[in-house]
Design brief:
Shape: globular
Largest sheet: 7 strands, parallel
Strand order of the largest sheet: 3-2-1-4-5-6-7
Order of helices and strands: EHEHEHEHEHEHHE
CATH topology: Rossmann fold
CATH class: Alpha Beta
Radius of gyration: 17 Å
CATH architecture: 3-Layer(aba) Sandwich
Distance between the termini: 32 Å
Helix content: 40-55%
Number of helices: 7
C-alpha cells in the first residue's frame, strides 16, 4: 500500500469531501489524523472505517494557531513525522451582491477558506522542511478562477487560498516538500444536493473521485507536480 507507515493529517476530515479523503488514505495503509468540529461526523467516519483502522480524531478549530500548534506537537510526539497534510476545511456563501452582504459573512469566508490553510501550512511546513519530505494539498475551488456574480467573498477567499499555496510552493522549491491546490466545482455531497435539489447531480464530481486525485498528489508518483492548481470539475 502506497501510504503504509506514513502519517497523514486531514483537516476537515469528516465532511463530505474530507471523509472520502480520510477513507482513501486509510485504505492505502496510512495513519490518518483528522480534525473535526462535529462529534457526530467523527463517529460516522469511525463507523465507515475498517475495524482497527489507524484513525485518530481531534476536535480542533484550525483557524486557531495555538490549537493547531498543540495538535501538531501531539502528532509529532506520537508518530515522529508528518508525511502529508490535506486541508479540506471550507465553507460557501453566495447568492448576495457584494453591497448587500453582511461583513460577518465575508469574515467567515476568509477564516474558513483562507486562514485555515494559512495556519495549517505555517505550522506544518517547518516540520516537513526538517524531515526534507512532505506533501501539502489545499482544497480551493473553481471559483478561485471563475468569479461569478453573487459569490464575491467566496471567490475572493478561494483565490487568496490558491495564491497563498502558489507562493508557498515557490518558497519551498527544491526542499523535498511539495505544495499543490485542487479546484473542485460543486461536489456531489448530501449537503449540496439538499441545497440545490433541481441540479443535475450526474455532472458533479464525486468525493471519491476527487480523493483519488488528492492521494496521487500526496504520493511519490507525483514528485514532479509542485505549485499546481489542479482542476477537478467533472462535467460541470
Amino acid at each position: 500500500m502506497k501510504f503504509s507507515g506514513m502519517s497523514v493529517l486531514v483537516a476537515g476530515g469528516t465532511g463530505g469531501l474530507g471523509r472520502a479523503v480520510s477513507l482513501a488514505f486509510l485504505a492505502e495503509g496510512a495513519q490518518v489524523i483528522v480534525t473535526y468540529r462535529s462529534q457526530k461526523e467523527f463517529d460516522s467516519l469511525k463507523s465507515l472505517a475498517a475495524k482497527g483502522a489507524p484513525l485518530e480524531g481531534y476536535s480542533t478549530d484550525v483557524t486557531d494557531e495555538n490549537a493547531v500548534r498543540q495538535l501538531f506537537d501531539q502528532v509529532i510526539a506520537k508518530y515522529g513525522r508528518l508525511d502529508a497534510l490535506v486541508n479540506a476545511v471550507g465553507a460557501f456563501a453566495g447568492g448576495v451582491n457584494l453591497w448587500e452582504q453582511q461583513t460577518k459573512v465575508f469574515d467567515q469566508m476568509l477564516a474558513l477558506n483562507l486562514r485555515s490553510g494559512y495556519v495549517l501550512a505555517r505550522i506544518a511546513t517547518p516540520l516537513m522542511l526538517k524531515q526534507k519530505h512532505g506533501a501539502i494539498v489545499n482544497v480551493a475551488a473553481k471559483a478561485a478562477l471563475d468569479h461569478g456574480a453573487g459569490a464575491s467573498s467566496y471567490a475572493a477567499s478561494k483565490a487568496g487560498a490558491v495564491a497563498l499555496m502558489d507562493s508557498l510552493a515557490a518558497e519551498v522549491k527544491g526542499t523535498g516538500v511539495r505544495v499543490n491546490s485542487i479546484l473542485p466545482s460543486v461536489i456531489d455531497t448530501e449537503a449540496n444536493r439538499k441545497a440545490m435539489p433541481n441540479a443535475d447531480f450526474a455532472k458533479w464530481p464525486k468525493p471519491e473521485e476527487i480523493a483519488r486525485v488528492i492521494l496521487f498528489l500526496c504520493s511519490d508518483d507525483a514528485m514532479v507536480i509542485h505549485g499546481a492548481a489542479v482542476p477537478v470539475y467533472g462535467d460541470s
